[in-house]
Amino acid sequence: MRLSPAIALSLVLFLPLAWALAAEDTGLQPVLIDLDDSRIGGLSGLVVSAAGRQFTAVSDAGYLVEGELKRDSSGRLTGAAVTGSRRLDVPPDAENRVDAEGLSPLPDGGLAVSMEGGSGIWVLRGAEMSPLPAPPDMGLLAASSMYEALATDAQGRLLTLPESPVDGGPAHPLWRLDEKGWRRLGVIERSGGYLPVGADVGPDGWLYLLERSIRLGFRHRIRRLDPDQPTTRPETLWSTVSHRRSNFEGLSVWSDPEGHLRATLVSDNNFTAAFRQELLEIPLDLKGPSR
Question: What burial letters (b/e) apply to 74-110, b meaning 16+ CB within 10 Å?
Fold first, then answer.
């Protein structure tokens, strides 16, 4: 979600106090993304590939961004650099504003891209963009709180849920797209003031949600659930009240060459120096059931 000018300004004014109050609650340190192009920023959707050596991201400004991940001999993330970018070719009309937010790989090598502002979900194959059927209730959602979180399951089916439910309700409907169209799998209850901004289906088949709360700065957490039983309360795997300059919105869950599960997050800098454009990597070697 691209923050409104009012929200961004209030955070800019309050963040110095928030940093002073915040105690670091994790030893994990984010790394800045080396950006050489002023047009590149606002990164919100993320895919990590090539055993953690490459990444693809989408920008609020409508760019597809590719880059390299730098690691030390132990595999720890030490840096990231953009190697290329290109504009997403979405037909410009009154209902299609290019505000790319979510990114998910498809089995045929394409990429699914979710957009706010009424643009819906598109598929990128090569240089060609084509629209998918609009998710249910999209016309009833606020322009800045639509279907941002996007994931693909092992069968190649897209999963999505709105950042804010219709009429500000207490639960987020989870939808899956198959050959018959969108089907509602259930709802995920809202808790703690968090809203879903990113999603991915891990190699273990579980759906991972990145959620954010804007309160005294940014708070984030990662929860895990069975997408076929979303009414079961998701398991919280990680949460933080630190990294207050980091507006994490994109999530990619993957396995390294040794088989360890990792989550990589990308932070949206909202095209302002007050926030950081960076990556944070979290180990997810948690003993849980496989699907």
Answer: eeebeebebeebeebebeeeeebebbbbbbbbeeeeb
pTM over 0.90: no
Query: Long-range contacts made by residues 48-51, C-beta under 8 angstroms, separation at least 24?
Result: 48/252, 48/254, 48/264, 49/105, 49/254, 51/256, 51/257
- Note down the domain range covering 30: 5-283
Summarised one tens digit per residue, pLDDT across range 109-143 is: 999 999 887 778 999 999 899 999 988 888 778 77
Number of domains forming the structure of the chain: 1
Q: Look up residue 28 and give its amino acid.
A: L
> Does residue 263 sit within a domain?
yes
Chain mean pLDDT for the chain: 84
Q: pLDDT tens digits, residue range 185-233?
A: 999 988 888 999 999 999 999 999 999 998 777 899 999 999 998 877 8
Residues 6+ apart with CB under 8 A from 60: 2, 41, 42, 43, 44, 99, 100, 101, 268, 270, 271
* Token pair 């990113």 in the structure block, residue: 198
Per-residue exposure over 190-206, b if at least 16 CB sit within 10 Å of its own CB, e if not: beeebbbbbbbbbebeb
The answer for residues whose C-beta is within 8 angstroms of residue 50's C-beta and 6 or more apart is none
* Closest alpha carbon to 217 in 248, 245, 251, 249: 245
- Residue-wise pLDDT tens digits, 47-71: 999 899 999 999 988 899 999 999 9
- Cα(207)–Cα(217) distance, integer angstroms: 26
The CATH number of whichever domain residue 86 belongs to comes to 2.115.10
